[in-house]
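ok so I'm stuck.
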Amino acid sequence: MILDDICARKRLTLNESKYIFDVRNLYEKMKTDKTASFKEALQKEGLSIIGEVKKASPSRGVIKADFNPVETARAYGSCVDAVSVLTEEHFFQGSPKYLEAIHSEISLPLLRKDFVISPMQVFEARMLGASAVLLIAAVLSDTAVLREYIAFAKGVGLDSLVETHNEKELEAALEAGAEIIGINNRNLYDFTEDIYTTVRLAEKVPKDKVIVSESSIHTNKDIEIVAGAGVSAVLVGESFMRSGDIIKKAGEFKDAYKKALN
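replied:
not stuck anymore, here's the structure
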């Protein structure tokens, strides 16, 4: 399965990594390099958008051939509330270096989007300037393990976007104490898409949680569907990267959200 292949490759990448964890450097970074709150950015009135810096994916291939991560992040800077940066190197052609470079250029909260299987990735995310880290329930499948990773993130000042795709994963995320629940409309095992995954799961999420609808958001109709489910935060990558005008596309999504509520 695709998810198993990605995680296997990630283990190899981590084994080859030259990143060395130094707790003193980490806490010095936390004192001197303040980052914006990811959670607060998603709690404002209206539609909150997480724009994704994304070159490629296993299901779509190369999405943006003339890819410039910093330039894309700058475009997002004027029209979204947070930025997701793909750092998985092999399947998505991302890089931790992209996160570090973008943090030096914009002040929006940044999400490290990767397949986290080691605490070192969480600590490295903070060193690179992230405000939040993605934790995938399908990867960290044991509730106790997921709870540990949420605690690791919180301990170094990071929010956790805990990604779910079905009821079992959602239950694990809630039991683990997740405050920000991601509902992925793309099945990570076969990469099929269904925007109504958000509709089905959102009604099972307690009102005190922040919900983010992830993936498969391409049209104004998609925005209207998630708005109807009571969701006010979305993570959008491919449709922005292919749009040719990120600012215009973001404006259209915000208008569609307002229309859905009226």
